[in-house]
Structure formats: structure tokens, C-alpha cells
Amino acid sequence: MSDPYFFGYGSLVNRQTHDYTDAHRAAIRGWRREWRYSHRLDKTFLSVVPDTDARIDGLIARVPRADWAALDLRETGYGRHMVPPDRLHHESPVTVAAQVYAVPLDASALPDVSHHIHLSYLDVVVAGFLAEFGTDGVTRFFATTTGWGAVLNDRASPLYPRARPTTPALREMVDDSLSQLRVKRATA
Questions:
Q1: Quick one: pLDDT band at residue 121, thresholds 50, 70, 90?
Q2: DSSP assignment, residue 113?
Q3: d(CA 62, CA 29)
Q4: Which of helix, strand or coil describes residue 88?
Q5: Mind listing the pLDDT tens digit for each residue in 75-92?
Q6: Fewer Cβ atoms within 10 A, N terminus or C terminus of the chain?
Q7: How far apart are the C-alpha atoms of 26 and 123, rounded to whole Å?
Q8: Of 133, 135, 132, which Cα lies nearest the Cα of 170?
Q9: Share of the chain above pLDDT 90, in %
Q10: Contacts of 151 (CB under 8 A, 6+ apart)
Q11: Residue 74 gets which letter from DSSP?
């Protein structure tokens, strides 16, 4: 039996946030990326929701020995869902299915001003898309992501546990994209 794969569409696209080395650029059909506020965890997460017309970029990565424990712990608050091979397009030389993590819709809602998106989280996600897909990939990320609630600028004291240092150019790219989308800024 071969090892399973996951499809990452947010922070898992940033290879600096995980140790899954057998990773390849990919895209899935049938899921749309969306910000969701988890009632149970009182946090806003980047998630996916079923959408037959959608296609999003990301990474697939092999989960050695089907050891999901560490990844399931990292993705607390999400459930795993199968993405069949015919919905997955990737650069890997093998045909695979993948698991995708999604916050349950019945336990979440679209974020609002009081349930904001952490800018340190978004920076990590965008840095991954920039490294993997270039500026066109960053543009596609913003164009294919919905549910934009208010964003809290926590760059000076990151609240996101996997925050990474950013460059001025990346920060400007993120800030410009948010301005173009007219995303509200939250205050602490």
C-alpha cells in the first residue's frame, strides 16, 4: 500500500511551516478557499467549502506511513475529506488521491469584525504562494478566496503560531491586495 497525500491550500503551501518534503504543486477542482470562523475554537481559519465550479492552487504532499497524527493535531478544528484523483491535478509522477482539511460548515461561519483574520497568518500563506506560483499565483490566491472578514495587523507581535519573518515587498503585496479587495481592518 502506498502512502497517502494531503492537499494544502493555505499555510501548508508554505514549505517553511512543515516537514513534508515530498511535496508538489497542484490544483483541485470542486473546492473553493474561504475564511471561516470556528465557533468551537473561537478563531478564524482559512478553509475550503464544496463548490463544483471552483479550482484552487496548492501543494500535495506525501504523508509517510499514513501517520496523520501530527498533521491532524496541527489542523485541529478541521475535518479531512477525500479528493479523488480525477479532481486533483499535480506535477507528481504518480496518480494519487489526497485528503483536504476543511472546517465543518455547521460549526463555523463567515468571519466578521469581531472574528478577524490575523495578518501574520495571511503573510505566511501568501509567502508560500509567492514561492510556489510567483506573483500570478498570489493574484489567483486572492481572486479565488472568499469570506474576507476584517484583518487584524498583528505583524509587530504575531498571534499566528507559525508566523515567519516577511520582506517589505511581501508585506506591500499583501497590503495592496487587501486594499484592492476593500478588506476592512480590525482593531484589537
A1: very high
A2: T
A3: 19
A4: strand
A5: 999 999 999 888 888 776
A6: N
A7: 20
A8: 135
A9: 85
A10: 116, 117, 118, 119, 122, 178, 183, 184, 185, 186
A11: H
Distance from C-alpha of 182 to C-alpha of 44, rounded to nearest angstrom = 19
| Separation between Cα atoms, residue 111 and residue 118, nearest integer Å | 11
Residue type (1 letter), 105:
L
Q: Are 179 and 128 in contact (CB under 8 A)?
A: no
Where do the domains of the chain lie, and which CATH numbers do they carry? 5-186 (3.10.490.10)
Residue 93 phi, psi (nearest 5): -75, -5
Identity of the amino acid at 64: P
Per the structure block, which three cell numbers stand in for 135? Answer: 506573483
67: three-class secondary structure by DSSP: coil
Which helix (DSSP H) or strand (DSSP E) does residue 181 occupy? Answer: helix 168-181
Three-state DSSP state, 98: strand
| Helix axes of 119-143 and 168-181: crossing angle, nearest 10 degrees | 60
Q: What is the DSSP letter of 155?
A: S
Q: 19-55: per-residue pLDDT in tens? A: 999 999 999 999 999 999 999 999 999 999 999 999 9
